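Lab notes, practical 5.
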Amino acid sequence: MDKTRIDFKHFRLPSGIGGRETEGDARESFADILYTRGVGIRAHALAWKIYRSEGAEAYDREDLGLIRSMAERWCNPAFIDGLNKQINNQTKKE
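Output from the prediction step:
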């Protein structure tokens, strides 16, 4: 898998431990995490890419690694599960 597509604008995540899902726009909140807690120009560029996205965008391996590490460190478990579900569902389709 060369690139992974993630849709932060129509982001689905569990609303509770039971697994029911809600959909929301996670662009600004996740971009803020990268922008305020990330380090380096890659985090800066990635924050703006996510903030300006209009749907599913392709992310390379390095971007995906940064997205995952920031999510695992700074986001709640529901966000992490929603992110992993998008990534894992894409992997199964390939």
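Observations recorded by the TA: The helical segments are 27-37, 41-52, 61-74, 77-93. The two ends are 8 Å apart (CA to CA).
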